[in-house]
Amino acid sequence: MAITDWPVTERPREKLLRIGARNLSDTELLAIFLRTGTSGNSAVDLARNLLNHYGSLTSLFSADQSALCNFPGIGIAKYTQLQAILEMSRRTLGEKLEQGNAMNTPQLVREFLRLSLSSKQHEVFIAIFLDARNHMISTEELFNGTLTQASVYPREVVKRALHHNAAAIIFAHNHPSGIAEPSQADKDLTHILKKALDLMDIKVLDHFIIGKNKIMSFAEQNLI
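^ thats the sequence. predicted structure below, dont judge the formating
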């Protein structure tokens, strides 16, 4: 049955206008984005099929371009629209981090990092450079790696921190394996970076590991 044949109160767009986006299911929100379905399937059916296939919105947003574009009902146009929405969301969160104290909004930092890193197919190490009020100055992808690791050079990290005149830094990297647990190498690297930056009177506030469905904080685990 086409969505236009549904009762008005049950149509996703009308529901959003009536009760707000927060009260819609993932399927309904995705259906609004998709707008159209396929022959014999409504946009809601297509949204449900996508979520059943990928398991979650996070996994869907992280999907490989080729695989997603070849999914029935999805093409390059919808893929690029999805990427544009994700980037606008990331930039919106970045603007909020520039205006507020990052340490007072830990969930905002997590969401920003999740949008920045969860879709990466290889390991990426980034830094959020902060001023003395913990407002974000800039964020940079400092090092890119293979599927399993990225080589991080402390001298370059210190150089970029001084370039931004940063008073503090938050580090983050993703684990393409999906497991958000620190390796011994992760712990050793964090210790080395903290020691190097301490010499410059630059604080390392946290180091996040971004997994598939979890984000791990060194600070929360008392590892920093």
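The chain has a mean pLDDT of 88.
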